[in-house]
């Protein structure tokens, strides 16, 4: 059975109070992620962030906490959910596209912060391999690539979850030019050569 990112999906996994332990959502948890990503990007850029590209953005949940921290940030989101784009696209700057479309899609100049949160572990390897080089080109600062693996204790939405080893993602991120910073954060190819040895694990 194919997976549908419709209204019922977002209600269940992002807003259902009966699923507090397994739900993806939660404003406090999201605010911490956003604060971490923003601070890390600004540390490496040595200035406030100005632009964010959110690939697999869903309903654009990152937009509000980003704007709370940086009211003038330019936010652009893409998702494959026709429901999310139809409902929220106009007022939240969301556009329709799949991850694999980024093999060719270049909707903006390289951004300060690229977000791809809770997406990659649901995609086929071929789609990851098509789209990931495009994400690397579009990231001029730091990427938040939140991804879970078969080594992790997974709760919540496991329908369509690909139980791959962490090595699968590390190798692909490195091949695309990203350097690991920890906590799902990756330094862009544009900045990786500027990092000092102990900022990048294994350098």
UniProtKB/TrEMBL annotation:
<dbReference type="Pfam" id="PF08242">
    <property type="entry name" value="Methyltransf_12"/>
</dbReference>
<keyword id="KW-0808">Transferase</keyword>
<keyword id="KW-0489">Methyltransferase</keyword>
<dbReference type="InterPro" id="IPR029063">
    <property type="entry name" value="SAM-dependent_MTases_sf"/>
</dbReference>
<feature type="domain" description="Methyltransferase type 12">
    <location>
        <begin position="53"/>
        <end position="138"/>
    </location>
</feature>
<dbReference type="GO" id="GO:0008168">
    <property type="term" value="F:methyltransferase activity"/>
</dbReference>
<dbReference type="GO" id="GO:0032259">
    <property type="term" value="P:methylation"/>
</dbReference>
<dbReference type="InterPro" id="IPR013217">
    <property type="entry name" value="Methyltransf_12"/>
</dbReference>
<protein>
    <submittedName>
        <fullName>Class I SAM-dependent methyltransferase</fullName>
    </submittedName>
</protein>
